[in-house]
Amino acid sequence: MTVQLQQLRYFVTAAELRHFTRAAERLGVSQPTLSKQIHTLEATLGAPLFDRSRGTVVLTTAGETLLPLARRVVADADIARDAVQEVVGLRRGRVRLGATPSLCTSLVPLVLREFHALHPDIELHVDEGGSQDLVARLVGHELDLALVVEPARGSDPALETVPVLRESLVVASVAPLSERIVLAELRDTPLVMFRTGYDLRDTTLEACRRAGFVPRYAVEGGEMDAVLAFVEAGLGVALVPSMALANRPLLHSAPLVAPGVHRTIALAQRRGSVLPHAAEAMRATLIDRVARGPLPVGVQPL
Fold first, then answer.
1. Exposed, middle or buried by CB within 10 Å (0-12, 13-18, 19+), for 244?
2. pTM
3. 211-214 own/partner pairs: CB under 8 Å, 24+ apart
4. What average pLDDT does range 251-277 have in this prediction?
């Protein structure tokens, strides 16, 4: 037989009130039920906890020894219960969200503002990076959710994804270009190219391939901030999401002639995983925000 938390709670209440009937009333149980549980506890421990011989409820030496220990166990159980209830009730907890750089400077701040207003005590952790890196962190349990580019070959089988956005890509340059550009016109224009493994590199190379040419590189390597800085330095042009230029006044944006170049953004989580309550609330907030709009320029809901 093992000692049960309920038995310790009954014992502590009876010891503090020194009265079985009043203890039963406080606990919302019958007096025989309380007495039976305390008798069972005494049998389990192998010692009487109360001296009932004089018609009063007096702790024995064993009872005096047990009382502070039982109080600590009951208090710890109450703290654990309250902590879990706070998480379930979204009064505490954390969300680990990953997103691509263009989304971190556009959509994600809007979503976080709404979520924080609804759940101000939830900790927010944002991881910015390329889609391949974010997928690895998601699979490795370092993230709860991630906004990633959905590859043409299909998503990682370890993930469940829901397409949420369609991003348009534009040509970023330091000097104004044509009002609208046919991608093939960039055949002889040096490009600033993203690093190997960055999803926009694959997108750019595939778009150029479909347009019938292999691009020339002015400089190669870097992620979003570095690529935009290289373009600002006049080293070449780059194919980027239109949202990425929102806070880049030195750069000009030229849309591509239809059909243009687009990429699908999906909300991903580990396949078969049950999201923590806070992460589930973040997922709902994000999907609702996309559905309601308005959205940044160059972004369309799916």
1. buried
2. 0.69
3. 211/182, 211/183, 211/184, 211/187, 212/184, 213/184, 213/187
4. 90
- Assign 187 a pLDDT band (cuts: 50, 70, 90): very high
| Torsion angle of the four alpha carbons 20, 23, 29, 33, in this order, in degrees rounded to the nearest 10 | -30
Query: Which residue pairs from 57-62 have beta carbons closer than 8 angstroms and sit at least 24 positions apart in sequence?
Result: 57/14, 57/15, 57/18, 57/19, 57/20, 58/18, 59/15
Exposure string for 162-179, b = 16+ CB within 10 A, e = fewer: eebbebbbbbbbeeebee
d(CA 121, CA 92): 5
C-alpha dihedral sign at 257, 258, 261, 265: positive
Distance CA 212, CA 206 (A): 10
* Three-state secondary structure call for residue 158: coil
Contact between 278 and 141 under an 8 Å Cβ cutoff? The reply is: no
The DSSP line for 49-93 is -EE-TTSS-EE-HHHHHHHHHHHHHHHHHHHHHHHHHHHHTTSS-
- Separation of alpha carbons 248 and 228, rounded Å: 8
Longest Cα pair distance anywhere in the chain, in angstroms? Answer: 104
